[in-house]
Amino acid sequence: MVPEFESLGITVLCKSKFEDMVQYVVAAPELTDAERQEFYTKFSTMSDSELGIMHMTLGMHLRNKFGLWHNSWTAEVDANGCDASKNHPDSISMAVIRQAHTVIADKISKGEIYVPHQA
Asked: What count of Cα atoms within 13 Å lies in the side-chain half-sphere of residue 38?
């Protein structure tokens, strides 16, 4: 199930910009057709911890491409001294990646995106 945008607690950007970012990941426009199919195959089966690793590259790309560092947010420092704000650019890009992961898996299950069965 795809979470509703409002439940994510993001207030520094509008729902349409968030959805544009998700659709950007789903469309994977900077990849060739072969690379896109490989991306869909691997990305759709990643665990949450693997998505966290993907966040180091894809997340950085999203933060830069969509100018997330230009947003202002109020830090919410957790017990470990980390900013846990849902409006932090890292938090937003991770939410986009998780949402795109869900959308891609859903599209694969509906046959809207084809990926070959792996042996």
From this structure: 5
Give the H or E element holding residue 19.
helix 15-27
Is the separation of the CB atoms in 39 and 54 below 8 Å? no
The CA distance from 73 to 77, in Å, is 12
Whether the predicted model's global pTM rises above the 0.90 cut: yes
Q: What tens digit of pLDDT does each residue of 51-97 get?
A: 999 999 999 999 999 999 999 999 999 999 999 999 999 999 999 99
User: Where does the pLDDT of residue 2 fall: very low under 50, low under 70, confident under 90, or very high at 90 and above?
Assistant: low
- What span, in angstroms and rounded, lies between the C-alpha atoms of 110 and 55? 26
Alpha-carbon gap, residue 80 to 44, rounded angstroms: 31
Q: How many Cβ atoms are within 10 Å of 36's Cβ, its own excluded?
A: 15
